[in-house]
Amino acid sequence: SVSIGVLAVQGDVREHLDTLRACGVHALPVRRPAELVQVDGLVLPGGESTTIDRLLRAFHLAEPLQERLAAGMPAYGSCAGMILLADRLVEAHAGQQTLGGLDMLVRRNAFGRQVDSFEADLDLADVLGGDHEPMRAVFIRAPWVEEVGDDVEVLASVEVDGVSRPVAVRQDHLLATSFHPEVTGDPRIHALFVRMVRQARDDA
Ligand code: GLN
């Protein structure tokens, strides 16, 4: 079986561990480089991306993590995790850096203060083997994707003021969603990520 880590410096770690375990994989929190080397894939949870960015550096995790990502370790970022996997941010907070990997421009807190949090039904059939069962997506001070490079596959979007904003994307071994699938009890995004991790391990 594969081992999947959940970055555990800040954010909603427990819910991701529970959902991964429900998918039948070994899941463990990752706070130190010694834990990072034990995992075949990593979930970057929601939380506060500026705080996670700061703690990654303080815990000496940023560099080993970037090396593993560059070497092809699969990663899934939700909300703040999506921000961390973006190559570029719109109006980055002073000094805020990202790990990068996904060729895209992301806007933090994009949906605006008046709609701090909301829910929407998404159709992810293209990546879920034709399964059109709507996915209830929970957005909490969520980012959206403003621009994607040619190699980024848009898996789902939400329409805002007539403009379609990507909220789920994939590029090679990296997956990201603006929303929080760990809070709804729908394991399909985690199951998709588990398939990506298994695939990467079989290919290695
Ligand atoms: N607004 C947060 C940030 O910019 C993300 C919110 C979340 O992860 N729920 O980091």
From TrEMBL:
State the active site. 79 (nucleophile), 180 (charge relay system), 182 (charge relay system)
The GO terms describing molecular function are:
glutaminase activity; pyridoxal 5'-phosphate synthase (glutamine hydrolysing) activity; transferase activity
The EC number(s) given in the record are 4.3.3.6, 3.5.1.2
Q: Which reaction does it catalyse?
A: aldehydo-D-ribose 5-phosphate + D-glyceraldehyde 3-phosphate + L-glutamine = pyridoxal 5'-phosphate + L-glutamate + phosphate + 3 H2O + H(+); L-glutamine + H2O = L-glutamate + NH4(+)
Gene3D superfamilies referenced in this protein's UniProt entry, alphabetically:
3.40.50.880
Superkingdom is: Bacteria
Its assembly, as annotated, is: In the presence of PdxS, forms a dodecamer of heterodimers. Only shows activity in the heterodimer.
**What is the purpose of this protein?**
Catalyzes the hydrolysis of glutamine to glutamate and ammonia as part of the biosynthesis of pyridoxal 5'-phosphate. The resulting ammonia molecule is channeled to the active site of PdxS.
Q: What is this protein called?
A: Pyridoxal 5'-phosphate synthase subunit PdxT
Per the UniProt entry, what species is this protein from, by scientific name? Answer: Mobilicoccus pelagius NBRC 104925
Q: What is the lineage of its organism?
A: Bacteria, Bacillati, Actinomycetota, Actinomycetes, Micrococcales
